[in-house]
């Protein structure tokens, strides 16, 4: 089979990111072997390939928005049969015993493992996933549309909940890519007013097409005080203006796994009057179930740009340059 591996992370021209031909992985224990039907290209993959996130395992296969067909089952697997369509997401394993796991915060487990970072992901024709972390997928979507739901959708959903947006409230979204365009639709379905701030003209138009009340440049002030905001762009420079845009008691949730340095904050302007700054770390399987259930009941418009598997490096370059409309997806 063909699979992309990160042998030396770095910017274009310096990294060793190669497409190789190798055997189909073995399946054992409680794992499923998946024939990859589609794999989303996430900004986290870009961070892994470029070295912003040090790889946890040399030569790892990236990709954690995997839509696959079960090709084989490990001897300890129950509840799945060959031919089932399932998803593999970012969270791949937790200890199940630590105080975080016991209180329902498995995303904070110190022994957590991640697809495409600790273990091989979906930039390949086949991959494996622990059956306990495989997700049932909603109907009504193509495999290309399903792929972004498995990280962009799930993490956007968690970020929206972390922002504590009141029903019918005013939400600001900074950056408008794969995750943001799905989180915005959840907020809109729940009655929110959505304002988008992003550098891309194409993304601003998409935001308006999806129902946003306004769409301005990333540096523009929000048109009205915000009850909540989500920062999807990996730019720490946007944290102060996003906090300043919040109304009293508002919350800013930072959705990315990697962020450039945050400038100094001014207490009175950015945090006083009980404004809150929160991070978002991965997501739990409960988040995934809730979001995928929402997607089953509320048809989402999933905007994608397709690439062949051998175009993964180009897809990452386009993502870095802001040339992708919606979400990039690899089709083996």
Question: Your description of this structure?
Answer:
Helix 3 crosses helix 4 and helix 3 packs across helix 8. Strand 13, helix 6 and strand 14 form a beta-alpha-beta unit. Strands 3, 4, 5, 8, 9, 16 and 17 form a seven-stranded mixed beta sheet that branches. A six-stranded parallel beta sheet has the order 12-11-10-13-14-15. The protein is globular. It has 332 residues and is α/β, with parallel strands linked by helices. The chain folds into two domains: 182 residues, Alpha-Beta Complex (Quinone Oxidoreductase, Chain A, domain 1); 126 residues, Rossmann fold. The chain has nine helices and 17 strands. 26% of the residues lie in helices and 27% in strands. The N and C termini lie close together (10 Å).
Tally of separate helices? 9
CATH superfamily descriptor of the largest domain: Medium-chain alcohol dehydrogenases, catalytic domain
Low-confidence stretches at least 5 residues in length (pLDDT < 50)? none
Rg to the nearest angstrom? Answer: 19 Å
Helix content: 25-40%
Euclidean distance between termini CA atoms:
10 Å
The chain-level mean pLDDT equals: 96
Could you please say which CATH topology of the largest domain applies here? Quinone Oxidoreductase, Chain A, domain 1
Overall spatial form: globular
CATH level-two architecture of the largest domain: Alpha-Beta Complex
Give the tally of structural domains.
Answer: 2
Catalytic activity: a secondary alcohol + NAD(+) = a ketone + NADH + H(+); a primary alcohol + NAD(+) = an aldehyde + NADH + H(+)
Family: Belongs to the zinc-containing alcohol dehydrogenase family.
EC number: 1.1.1.1
GO molecular function, one term: alcohol dehydrogenase (NAD+) activity
